[in-house]
Structures are given as C-alpha cells and as structure tokens.
Amino acid sequence: MDRYGTKDADKDAWDNVQQRFKCCGIDGPNNWQGKLIPTSCCREKQDSGETESAVCKILQTKNSYLSTTGCYEEIKMEVQSNAKCLIGVGIGIAFIEVVGVVLACWLAKTVKSGGK
C-alpha cells in the first residue's frame, strides 16, 4: 500500500484486488489513512448499478460509496472456499511424481538387466 502511487504495477495489483473482491485496504478503508482512497474502493451505487467514481472521489471520507470490508478477510475466505480443490491438485501432483519415480526405477532395472 505504501507504493500505491509510485509504481504502476503496485497500483494495478491493488486496484484489481479491490475491484474483484469488492473490498478496500487490508482491514478496511481506514488503512488508506493519510492517503487518497483509490476509486477501486468504491462500490456500485445501490439504485443505479453504476460506479459513481466522481462522487466517490468527492465523498471519500464518507462510507456511503466505499467498500467497508478489508481485502485480507475476502482473500482468506476465497482461499478457504477453494482449499479442497487446492489439496486435491496437490495430492494429484504428488501421485504423478510417485508414478514417475516407480517407472524410472523399473526402466533402470530393465536397462541394467539387458532388456530381459
């Protein structure tokens, strides 16, 4: 967050996370204290479904247009909801590795014995 305004890569990363997860800052918008709150913290206006970027910039000190949840909790929930899939992929990769080692040992034994 400290490098948000200095590097484009950091700015783009924070903007993408905050827009995708509809969150703001690490624990909430207060993490941007002393800095201009990015428009990526703005949520859609309830009645129109459009992002009011200009209004959000003006009313940054009010929470009416800001996402109030922090990105840490949102990302944590996303990882927890996909944990079973991640564990399954990890077990699948480990199984493929074990099969590869067994086949390599079998090939080495076959080559050593002269293919008999």
From TrEMBL:
It is a multi-pass membrane protein. InterPro entries: Tetraspanin/Peripherin (IPR018499), Tetraspanin_EC2_sf (IPR008952). It comes from the Eukaryota. The lineage of its organism: Eukaryota, Metazoa, Ecdysozoa, Arthropoda, Hexapoda. It comes from Oryctes borbonicus. CDD domains: tetraspanin_LEL. Gene3D superfamilies: Tetraspanin. It is found in: Membrane. GO terms for cellular component: membrane. Keywords: Membrane, Transmembrane, Transmembrane helix. Its main location: membrane. The chain crosses the membrane at residues 86-108. This is Tetraspannin.
